[in-house]
Design goal:
The structure is a single chain. By secondary structure, the chain is mainly α. It has 6 helices and no strands. The protein folds into 2 domains: 78 residues, no CATH class; 46 residues, no CATH class. Helix 2 runs antiparallel to helix 3.
């Protein structure tokens, strides 16, 4: 009913004005998003100018946004082995990339949940890297 009243209400000022809607559009004093106008402008400037320094500024902006817990990554603090007093893991104790990708799986996604093209692409990718696909 509320949406109907927004669209067809009697208020002459709001008669031709609907809420913009959407979850991702930037709004002043609205929900914060990583892709702020400043971040997008900085990225565009870095790319257009080929400026590594400007790209580092952009990267710092994005990293500061993740620190505000807008991503899962922002909820974690990565500590190097030296910071924790632990020894580094020896490279011989780490699985090879070939062994790691064998564990990848795209289990049981039906055509109802993804398109035929997506299913085919995932199957090809898993076959190429040695992962599992059904």
């Amino acid at each position: 009913l509320s949406r109907h009243n927004d669209g067809f209400g009697n208020d002459p000022v709001l008669r031709n004005s609907l809420e913009v809607g959407g979850e991702y559009m930037f709004r002043m004093r609205g929900e914060a998003h990583i892709w702020s106008p400043d971040a997008v402008a900085t990225l565009q400037h870095a790319v257009r100018q080929g400026s590594w320094e400007t790209f580092k500024d952009y990267s710092a902006q994005i990293d500061s946004e993740t620190a505000r817990a807008q991503t899962i990554r922002g909820l974690f603090k990565i500590k190097l082995a030296g910071e924790t007093g632990r020894k580094k893991v020896a490279l011989d104790d780490v699985m090879s990339a070939a062994d790691i990708v064998k564990r990848f799986s795209t289990g049981a996604m039906s055509f109802g949940s993804i398109s035929r093209e997506a299913h085919t692409t995932l199957a090809r990718a898993m076959n190429q890297i040695g992962g599992k696909s059904n």
